[in-house]
Write a structure and sequence with these properties.
By secondary structure, this protein is mostly helical. It is built from seven helices and no strands. Helix 5 runs antiparallel to helix 6.
Length: about 140
């Protein structure tokens, strides 16, 4: 059986989504705040609260909302994505790109690290190929 608190939370969430699509971000933020007050563990509401704060230019607050969403669901790709957007808007680019790696599911191998390993392996292969071509031939003339 659904509780009235859950139903009200969903109604506020849906209203917030509609307002966000109309670019009425401040009103949408109020809806997401009400949804969270009724259902504090609603990860999606925390994420979209963060998105509204990004649209409003309140990046530090957006970061905190995304932090809360990640505390609820640590592998939520949207939470990592918008956490990264907030960081990028704050000029924290390296951290932002790490967050984008998380959003893409690169949990244990960030993109830059895996690219560097791949490039190192290519250079090793090329160096070995070059050495093999320049080695004196053992065949007699």
């Amino acid at each position: 059986m659904l509780t009235s608190q859950f139903v009200n939370s969903q109604a506020d969430y849906e209203q917030g989504s509609l307002l966000a699509n109309q670019q009425r971000y401040l009103e949408a933020l109020a809806c997401f705040d009400r949804a969270i007050a009724q259902q504090p563990e609603d990860c999606a509401a925390w994420i979209f609260r963060g998105v509204m704060l990004i649209y409003l230019g309140r990046f530090d607050e957006a970061l905190k909302s995304c932090d809360r969403a990640l505390a609820i669901q640590p592998k939520n790709a949207e939470a990592w994505l918008f956490h990264g957007v907030a960081l990028q808007r704050l000029g924290r680019y390296r951290e932002a790109y790490q967050n984008y790696d998380h959003a893409l599911g690169r949990w244990h191998r960030p993109l830059t690290a895996s690219l560097m390993r791949g490039l190192k392996r290519v250079w090793q292969l090329l160096a070995g190929f070059s050495l093999a071509q320049n080695a004196p031939s053992n065949s007699s003339r």
